[in-house]
Automatic annotation (TrEMBL):
Membrane-spanning intervals of the chain: 46-69, 81-101, 108-125, 131-151, 172-193, 208-227, 248-278, 284-303, 315-348, 384-404, 410-432
Record protein name field: MFS transporter
Keyword Transmembrane: yes
Key words, A-Z: Membrane, Transmembrane, Transmembrane helix
Length: 440
């Protein structure tokens, strides 16, 4: 495992500069922010650079692939089925990745996951018709790409950071993702809209989607090259399959299940709602961009100045914002309601992530030391907690859309999910307190 940063390194400033942790320097001396970034370990910086490039790929995969399936099938249930097969492929690949880590370099597996996402998009765009089988196979392949990407990315994030700099790491990483979720949907949405109105490609939107896919594949190649600029170490222990865990980890799995419950909807619902109530993919990009810049700046500042003790407050604010958005969508159920929901989603998701991931990593630090196990064992097991939540969430949507109505599912299931998320607050508070007690 890679050597972690010390507290002194974390708080180091450049010689002769004013203290980098002051709020004043963030606003008045932005060049100091780059100097502060350079005080981080090189491995952490290379990982962030890799994730920055790949951050331009994720919005296309998460937003426009769902919109492409919706456009081609005109069936929200097919979109949900696609997402369910994606989520099914992820834990399967986590398992395969665990075995491969004893034989292959972690950077090879990581870059393979990024490249595979581009290949799975190419396969999707080449399907003549979106049958259930075709969508299922494409979804499994995309899930495999996510599995290789997230399994290795999570381990590398854990091994190159410590609890004192994880707020900064995830704040900066989430800042990247938030900015790209503004730029990419705007650009790709406008590009697809031009094809849709006949300006480009003779009105053939599928051709435009194929061009976007080629661009995505090029980005995955570049990010794969960048990650190989650092020699990351594989987990030292090879065993990663366990069935009994410390009680603290079992509570973390419940928190993971609650997170997964919302994840499926956050990938699937916005595309369906916007295509149904707002308009085309151009609207998709415009709506995502409305509050994104403010959110991105806020996330960087939170990651820069907050401490581990503030995570529960960030999580609580994010969950309340999500509940407000789902209520606006359910009550109004119109273009205005959808815009309100997506604005709240843009705020909620990164706030939730910047609090959740450091909590998860902290628990892994603690229980891995207590039980003397490979950290990847917990990353692997955590994915199954997420999967159960995703499966239940998407299953609820499919059941309601099939046996009640699509409108009912889009209006009310999100509210149910948001109310269940509120249970995360007392649970997360307990997990944080217990982690601190056990680490002493």
């Amino acid at each position: 495992m890679m050597e972690k940063t010390t507290e002194i390194e974390m708080n180091a400033a450049t010689p002769g500069a004013k203290p980098l942790l002051s709020k004043r320097s963030i606003w008045q001396r932005p060049h100091d922010e780059f100097a502060f970034f350079l005080t981080m370990p090189r491995a952490m910086r290379v990982l962030l650079a890799t994730n920055l490039i790949y951050a331009f790929v994720l919005p296309v995969i998460e937003i426009f692939v769902g919109a492409y399936v919706m456009r081609s099938s005109n069936d929200p249930s097919i979109v949900a089925l696609y997402q369910l097969t994606v989520y099914t492929g992820i834990p399967i690949t986590f398992l395969l990745n665990g075995f491969l880590l004893s034989r292959m370099k972690i950077t090879t597996l990581y870059s393979f996951g990024m490249l595979l996402s581009g290949l799975s998009m190419l396969m999707m765009m080449r399907l003549e018709s979106l049958s259930v089988i075709g969508v299922g196979v494409a979804g499994i392949l995309m899930g495999c790409s996510f599995g290789f990407f997230w399994a290795n990315r999570d381990y590398l994030a854990l091994s190159t950071t410590n609890d004192s700099n994880r707020n900064y790491y995830y704040g900066l990483e989430t800042f990247f993702y938030t900015i790209t979720f503004i730029i990419v949907p705007l650009g790709v949405g406008a590009f697809l809209a031009k094809a849709d109105d006949g300006t480009w490609f003779s009105g053939n939107v599928n051709t435009a989607y194929q061009v976007v896919t080629v661009f995505v594949f090029i980005l995955t190649i570049i990010s794969s090259i960048v990650v190989h600029q650092q020699k990351f170490k594989n987990p030292e222990q090879k065993k990663f399959l366990y069935f009994r865990f410390h009680s603290l980890w079992n509570k973390m799995l419940v928190l993971a299940g609650l997170k997964g419950l919302a994840q499926g909807y956050l990938v699937t619902a916005p595309a369906i709602l916007i295509m149904t109530l707002v308009g085309n993919e151009g609207s998709l990009g415009t709506v995502q961009a409305i509050s994104g810049v403010v959110t991105a700046i806020m996330l960087y500042l939170l990651g820069r100045v907050t401490k581990p003790k503030h995570r529960i407050y960030i999580l609580t604010i994010g969950l309340i914002i999500f509940l407000i958005g789902t209520l606006a969508n359910g009550i109004l159920f119109s273009a205005v309601g959808v815009i309100a929901f997506v604005l709240c989603k843009v705020l909620f998701q990164p706030l939730h992530d910047i609090a959740y991931f450091p909590i998860q990593m902290r628990v892994i630090d603690v229980v891995a030391k207590i039980e003397g196990r490979n950290e990847f064992a917990y990353i692997f097991n955590h994915e199954f907690g997420l999967y159960i939540g995703r499966f239940l969430g998407l299953g609820l949507f499919i059941v309601l859309a099939t046996f009640v109505s699509q409108t009912f599912a889009l209006k009310y299931s999100l509210i149910v999910i948001a109310l269940l998320q509120i249970a995360s607050i007392p649970l997360a508070k307990h997990i944080i307190r217990k982690s601190n007690e056990l680490s002493k």
